[in-house]
Amino acid sequence: MALRLLMLVLDGFPPRHCTRVVTPNLVKIGEAGTWVRGGGRAVLPSITYPNHASLATGLPPQAHGIVANHVFTDAGLKPAKDIGARGSTFLDAAHAAGLTTAVIVGDAKILGVVGAQRCDDHWPPGGALPPDTPTVRGYAADSTTIASLRRTLDGGADVILCQLDNTDGVSHIYGPDSPEAMVQYAAVDALVGELVDALRHGTRWSETIVAIISDHSQVTADLNHAPISVSAALNRAGIEAQWIEDGSCALIRTRETTAVGRVIAALDGVAGVEDYAPDMLYAHGMPGRGFATGKPLTRGLHGCPSSAPTLCMATGGHPGLARLRQAFVREAPTTAALPRQLTDAVGLAWPVLPLPKTRSAHGGAAAH
Q1: Which of 109, 155, 260, 351 pairs with 123 at a CA distance of 20 to 30 A?
Q2: For the residues 261-277, what does the mean pLDDT come to?
Q3: What are the tens digits of pLDDT across the range 298-309?
Q4: Whole-angstrom Cα distance, residue 200 to residue 137?
């Protein structure tokens, strides 16, 4: 049968705040469809770009290569948007099946991360917000992003990835449990409720599944402590390494993993240091502790395991919704498992597609 699939990502939305008081529309949607009440899980680090890459490819960061908002390369750190995730995406699979595809995002950098240029349409056009676009923390206002999404849906797009950014932005500014964040959660709840109501009363509802998810959540920063500085610790120890400090986590690329692990684990505020990939470690902070980025800590942080819980629910009139409900019972969704659960539920074949070769994060050739 015909298919319309929408993956709608509420960036940074903590599932603990999906309640009848704060988000009545989301609760209603979840109860009428399928809802993982215990939440799904982000891949680690629980950061936007690694998780959007996983939501697109169905792979963990170690496989798709987007390990943080920047990526290690032999030429230094490069923005994730300039590298792009390795592997075929569910959007590629949909395109190969003759369906029209689109990516609509509030954070334009996600376009490069998920390979949106291979889709039939994307917004913002060319990866840049149109002049005078209302923004929150530099990213498109959710109302503007939703308006673009609705135009794309009205234009007949079949398979769409859409990211609404402002739940993450406001939580960074004020903290994820602040009154200001509650107002923003309620605002996105209203937008999503209106969207789903419009789709439900449209002609394609029987073909539609809408997955409403978050890519990670946030924890409140403890601003009474100084940021954890990986760079200062490694410089003191005289160890050569590359590092990325981002929110409540850090990634360190080094051939001296044992020595680096001891140095970082001994730092005040570090909860753990784990092997992440060959020659790479993942460090995460204790609750509320953040790493030094050269900028003041925000009031909301993510990257660590405690910010990994994700919102996960779906609705629609497509019969695949029942199969998706069963899939969630068999396996609680992670951001890497969810896209395959969705495509399996609607019967969309997702082969490994041959894609152009580009340079990998470590300087070799890799199929993207």
Answers
A1: 351
A2: 98
A3: 999 999 999 999
A4: 32
Cβ–Cβ < 8 Å for 260, 254: yes
Indicate yes or no: pTM above 0.90: yes
**Separation of alpha carbons 19 and 76, rounded Å:** 44
Residue-wise DSSP of 164-187 = E-HHHHHHHHH-TTSHHHHHHHHH
CA dist., res. 144 & res. 134, Å (int): 7
CA separation for the pair 197, 190 (Å, rounded)? 11
Residue-wise pLDDT tens digits, 59-114:
999 999 999 999 999 899 999 999 999 999 999 999 999 999 999 999 999 999 99
| Three-state secondary-structure class, residue 75 | coil
User: How many other β-carbons are positioned within 10 Å of the β-carbon of residue 127?
Assistant: 16
Cβ pair 251, 244 in contact under 8 A: yes
Give the count of alpha carbons within 13 A of 135, CB side only: 12
For 363, counting Cβ atoms within 10 Å of its Cβ (0-12 exposed, 13-18 middle, 19+ buried), the class is exposed
Residue 87 bridge partners (DSSP): none
CB atoms within 10 A of CB 192: 21
Distance CA 65, CA 175 (A): 29
DSSP for 16-68 reads GG-STTT-HHHHHHHHHSEE-TT-EEPPSS--HHHHHHHHHHS--HHHH---S
- Give 347's DSSP letter: T
Q: How far is CA 206 from the centre of its chain?
A: 28
Residue 351's pLDDT band (boundaries 50, 70, 90)?
A: confident
**Separation of alpha carbons 214 and 13, rounded Å:** 6
CA 366/CA 114 separation, integer angstroms: 15
Residue 362 has which token pair? 């470590």
Q: Which two tokens stand for residue 283?
A: 């460090």
